[in-house]
Design goal:
By secondary structure, the protein is α/β, with parallel strands linked by helices. The protein has one domain. The chain has six helices and five strands, in the order βααβααβααββ.
Length: 134
């Protein structure tokens, strides 16, 4: 199972950008079942937060709905994952909390990796980042 990061959905839905085509291809492949994918509740929260923060709530609702349609497996963030997040934040002081939440999900959830453009994830032992490619 591969966790799909919020940035993949946002690049796919966004304006022209070098990451748009690779994001669209990855999500198209996910729909065709060549990838077993999931999102977690934090990924969905990130989508809502970002679009609200930039004043594009209508777009945010649409991207949220599309994310749940394209990747219908939504996993919960557990208290154990949050404890692992704290451990990762102690071990990797330069990383943001959301990156550590996703890493904790990958580690404790036994996931194959995380599909993301976020290179900071490359620094976390035990986490495999998969970058979408066109």
């Amino acid at each position: 199972m591969i966790l799909v990061d919020a940035n993949v959905f946002m690049y796919a839905a966004g304006a022209p950008h070098p990451n748009k085509a690779p994001s669209l291809k990855f999500l198209h492949d996910a729909v065709r079942m060549s990838h077993q994918c999931c999102v977690n509740t934090e990924v969905l929260q990130e989508i809502l937060h970002r679009y609200r923060a930039i004043g594009r709530w209508a777009d945010g609702r649409e991207v949220y709905a599309l994310a749940k349609t394209i990747v219908p497996t939504v996993e919960l963030i557990t208290p154990e994952m949050m404890d692992e997040t704290v451990r990762l934040m102690d071990a990797y002081p330069a990383l943001m909390a959301r990156d550590c939440v996703h890493a904790a999900h990958c580690i404790l959830g036994g996931l194959e990796g995380i599909c993301s453009f976020d290179h900071d994830l490359d620094t976390i032992a035990g986490v495999h980042r998969i970058e979408p490619t066109a």
